[in-house]
Amino acid sequence: MALPKRKHSKARRDKSRTHWKLSVPSTTTCPQCAQPVLPHRVCAHCGYYRGRQVMVVAAKKKKDEAS
Predict the structure, then answer these.
(1) What are the DSSP E strand ranges found in the chain?
(2) Which residue, 13, 14, 42, 55, has most beta carbons within 10 Å?
């Protein structure tokens, strides 16, 4: 197995890592409720996908109603 003859400097190591970064996920808006949603996924807010309701979303309870 090949081994480096000399130690790579920290600057050289860090230069190769400049492109190791996270990318922001792209979002679209739901045509039903206008909430941001990931592409090709069911909207978690209204339960619609491609113009059809595929999931029933339960209404969230408020703090006053829960206690």
Answers:
(1) 28-29, 36-37, 48-49, 52-53
(2) 42
